[in-house]
Amino acid sequence: MKIFDLIKNRRTIHSFSDAQVSDETLRCAIESAMHAPNHHLTWPWFFIRVEGKKRELLADLHVRLKSVKSTMTEAAATAAR
Predict the structure, then answer these.
(1) Less crowded by CB within 10 Å, the N or C end of the chain?
(2) Residues 61, 62, 67, 70, Cα dihedral to 10°
(3) Number of structural domains, the chain?
């Protein structure tokens, strides 16, 4: 596949499976991301791998924070920042 086709046909995915991603796939994805262009060579990314119980806790926290955020007023959201 040509690079133009890859760029033109890329999509954002909003649904995910529970399948575990292999170490090799993660290494390849991170290495590819590290070669992406970045603003003024600031390298503005970092990667954290979260697995097991900590992943479940993080997902629960995300859901709780999202529900709180949706009920906040604009003033409260600004104050929380």
Answers:
(1) C
(2) 140
(3) 1
Return the closest-CA partner of residue 49 out of 79, 69, 29: 29
Domain that includes residue 52, residue range? 23-80
Q: How many CB atoms within 10 Å of residue 77?
A: 11
Distance CA 31, CA 26 (A): 8
The residue assigned the tokens 């997902």 is 59
Q: What is the pLDDT along the chain (81 residues), one digit of tens a residue?
A: 688 888 888 888 878 788 888 999 999 988 988 888 888 888 777 888 888 899 899 989 988 888 887 776 777 777 766
Q: Does residue 55 sit within a domain?
A: yes
In one-letter notation, the amino acid at residue 50 is V
Would you say 44 and 38 are in contact if contact means Cβ atoms under 8 Å apart? yes
Distance, CA of 67 to CA of 37 (rounded, Å): 35
